[in-house]
Amino acid sequence: MEPIVLQIPDSLKSIVAPLESLIRLLSEQIVASSAASPTGLAPFERALSEHTAELERSAYVPVLAALDVDTHEVRIGGVLHRRVGRFAAPFRTLAGEVSITRSLFRPSGAGSSPTVDVVALRAGTLGERWLPHAASAMAFLGQQGTSREAVQTAAQLGRLPYPRASFETVLHVVGAQWARDHADVEQALIEAYEVPAAARSVSVSLDRVSVRMEEPRKRGPGRPPKGGPKRLIVCAWRMAYCATVTLHDEKGEALHTIRYGRMPQGDATKLVESLCDDVMAMLRARPELRVALLCDGASEMWNLLSAQINDTTLKTKVWELVDYWHTAEKLGRAAQARHPESAAEGSKLLARWKTLLLERPDGAERIAAEIASWDVPTPPKDTSCPLHDARTYLAHHASRMLYAQARAAGLPIGSGNVEATCKCLVEVRMKRPGARWHEDTGEHVLQLRALALSDRWSPALSRLLAVNDVVIEPVTLAA
Hints:
10 strands, about 50% helix, elongated
């Protein structure tokens, strides 16, 4: 075997021992694999993962050390800082912790102010010196499932060897930064977004879904009982917001959905502003796109959407459509109430009504008139009558039931995208058995999960965790 000589600079000598160890492992495995009865590769795979992780950690040492500024004085953002000392500290990577000795500085004349870690500053770390790629990966696992599941997933992958508490901490550090900066990042994302060539329309939907919240409970009068809980809480179900902006092809089929979420106390008006900004950016790129608002019959949703997304603000026609399937559900109950003795007759009536809605421009008015001709009595207060409910629903939303015209224009008529978002964004992640949430930490998970489900995670986190461009200048003392 002819030897190969590698020339390695002094600054990279930290990788020599791990590299030699990795080469020995490979050589031993090649010999073992060439044997008459080779063993399985599972032990080798585990050992290879450990050796490559060690090599990766050793590679970070010279790279991070090069970010240090080993002088007594520096100017950081134009402000003079003096060094207070050099100390070792762990920097946390995908492969594990790496210890680096670096300088700490403090603003000149400010003896009680926090110190500045120039390595952490130049590397763009978060919290307790988490490198951006590691923080992004840990937050991604956190929006998918619990911290226990995140630790288990990381262990199976042989990456991120950190405890549960670290996963929870990083998730909320990233979530807090997103909550602070999301408006700017979202605007940059939508400005850079390339509308699919097959897109012919864009729909906007808004809905609500219940979330179990932990809230403080007031103490009753008198002294608290001895040994009683120090913090009284109550768990209550509150309604969170889910919203979507979906691009559709010429047949109304969904091409891509951008998803949003807000916790129950979130600002719904600002959420709708974000939806409007998205649509306006898409129209600037593709002015010919048709626009539709799609919701169920809840007046709160329509009031929020139509106040900001309308013909005037967008300078184009905005279709308003009540979800077809909600309408069909109302009519289904009414049809069965009309023929309680025969399910077949009720199904036949519903099929005829559906045909009217989908094929006749005045289908909703025709159905409402038909139900009115049956002289349905108004039910007593606090009671329900399916026929009366259907007639009222049709009367309130007839102008938003132009399904035949919408289909002819290639527009969607169902709000399935936001219904699915309620499930995958909130119910799958946040409504597990025993789960309960606080407003702020729940917001972190909800918004980060919306990014992942919108296929925007990588571009969003790249912008969010971009290195601060603060200028750091060493100060050279005069001779």
